[in-house]
Amino acid sequence: MNRFKISLLILVFFSQAVYSAPELNGNIVQGGLVWGQTMAGTRITLDGQPVPVHDQGHYVFGFSRDAVPESVLVFTYPDGSTESIKLAVGKRSFDIERVDGLPPKTVTPPPEWTARRKIENGRVRRARSVQTNDLYWTKGFVRPAEGRFSGFYGSQRILNGEPRSPHYGLDIAADIGTPIMAPAGGVVRLAAPDFLLEGGIVIIDHGFGVTSTLFHMNSVDVTEGETVAQGDLIGTVGAKGRASGPHVDWRVNWKSVRLDPLLVIEEGNDP
Ligand SMILES: [Zn+2]
Questions:
Q1: What pTM does this model have?
Q2: Residue 173 Cα, ligand 1 centroid: separation in angstroms?
Q3: Is CATH 2.60.34 the right assignment for the domain spanning 3-88?
Q4: Residue 198 Cα, ligand 1 centroid: separation in angstroms?
Q5: Which residues of the chain have pLDDT under 50?
Q6: Cα 95 to Cα 166: distance, rounded to the nearest angstrom
Q7: How far apart are CA 77 and CA 81, in angstroms?
Q8: By three-state DSSP, how is residue 198 classified?
Q9: Which one of 5, 12, 157, 252 is separated from 183 by 20 to 30 angstroms, measured CA to CA?
Q10: Are strands 96-99 and 156-159 parallel, antiparallel or unpaired?
């Protein structure tokens, strides 16, 4: 056997060792964010849908509130070999939350709100659909405000006595004017003082489709396009929009998939 063949054999053996057991961090549960790093040039799909991979192999994805019990993650490595992993997605049970005393218009929006809601929803969708190579999400998340957790992700909502769609945020109740900080660094994609249901709203793009959205803000102290660091002041707690009292509603998305903010702070470096 000549020298070239020997080195080729070693390479194949070694590469198999490197490729085995892809890294998966986070929570493989309903509402969970999952991330890892693989070999650069790898392609990944989750249940047949492409998962973006960074030049250095970073990847991230998440599971919705109603994710099915099993998902299939497929890695296609630079040499063309593939690895398929079955993920058992943990099922959770969600509470029922009753919220009373909401401004009636915010529970059943009047027809004259329809046109403006269309514009506002479009701005939210566009802000969350930006795809960048930024890796702010790799640094973990911190809670955006001091205060009491007053509403949870996934709960079935009964608003002013009427059953409504589930709640997708983590509500933190605090006095009006309490500072709100960026849960992670990123680029501000949406900053508006007075959406009909959300009140003051900020959407921060942490990269790779991971975003934070903050609702009901009294003041919004950032502008679209601005870059913020984790912990930077972005505004203050308010009670604007569909709110029965002062709180901030924090949402985390992976693209259009809604995730549980409490899971990302438990997993991250919240002090
Ligand atoms: Zn809320």
A1: 0.89
A2: 10
A3: no
A4: 9
A5: 1-19, 269-271
A6: 10
A7: 5
A8: coil
A9: 157
A10: parallel
